[in-house]
User: Fold this.
Amino acid sequence: MYLTGRLPLLVALGAVPVVLLSLAGVNAWLAAAGWVVLCAAAALGDAAAAADPRSVTVRRRMPHRVLLGQPVLSELVLRNGADGARGSRTIRGRVRDAWQPTAGAPVERQAIDIPAGEAQVVGIPLLPRRRGELRSAFVVVRADGPLRLAGRQARIDAPGAIRVLPPFTARRHLPSRLARLRELDGSTSVQVRGQGTEFDSLREYVRGDDVRSIDWRATARSTSTMLRTWRPERDRHVVIVIDTGRTAAARVGDGVRMDAAMEAALLLAALAARAGDHVHLLMFDRVIRARVTRVDGPGLLAALVDAMAPVEPQLIDTDWDAAFAQVRALTSRPSLVVLLTAQDATESARGFLGSLPALTQSAHVLVGTVTGDAEALPDRPDAADVYRAAAIERAAQDAAVVAAAIGRAGGEAIADTPDELPPRIADRYLALKAAGRL
Assistant:
């Protein structure tokens, strides 16, 4: 049972007859008590006369997956009559779906008016504000009484779930990088030569071409100078490691570091898959949080976002020896390993730097770090502004020291803002392809 807003109004209206009765010589307190009892009896009778909300069956219609921040409509099909049995009375009232707050469901209850034996579709607009699984375990149906003073309420189990995927906003950088990849791959007239590239075809020499690519045997058989053309090698193994330890939980911009790392991983994976390379993903701190391997072609991105969606940063330090052991378990011959982590403090980076040389001996290693935007001092800074600027400068110096140590260990450090890190890593991948180092 529940009470509506009409009951307090009815009780308040009783002040008029109570005052009139008191003027007529009746005890005011006795008149007030009698009015309250009368209102309570009316509310109880109204609730008893309401239709039974337990006769409603609930069926859900909604997508199973949605991108973060994308509006989605979840529909409830409410039928007045359980198991196909015809309901005996019309149900008028409201319904509320029990989504968690991060689903972005409206606070207001939706009005319903379901005649006996019929169904009504109620749309619940959602706007997810967090990755992972969004769940609703039940629906609450309220049936008003004839007087709308009170009614009956029932909780109806109707489990439903939506998986919220990373938004992949870095997708906007993909077309320009794919155009450069087609140039490297020989789809246009541009050809590259470098160590580790594959022979493609012969063509006539044009002024400006690299003379080291001249094929003298083919030239001797022809009437013109012939040049070898090359294309980047395919079938390479690219391993992407996302650190899910405590440093991934730090807020940078509008999100956390791990969200930006996911964007960089998705852009690189889409580019590498189009280039014909094999992509492996590992999300790790001390245990494996997500792993995608041996998935190629159009299904790769879907597998990646599905694996990334429920992963959250853990407030523990990452075991890098175990992480690199997992990298070697994914593939015995990685050509490129991209470590998306936050190695910007000299004290916490010692374990990482101690384990890194064992990996750089067998693969080219990129270490991507998400940093915040630089903040300029205001025209009239106060003490807090000065301390903040000093802290930012100290953090930048520490990050430079760690980046230099990564270079000495055989790796390559790339640090940038959440918006700029994904395209920079993609550009470095293309540069390695063009130079024949991948």
Q: What stands out?
A: Confidence is low (pLDDT under 50) at residues 187-196.
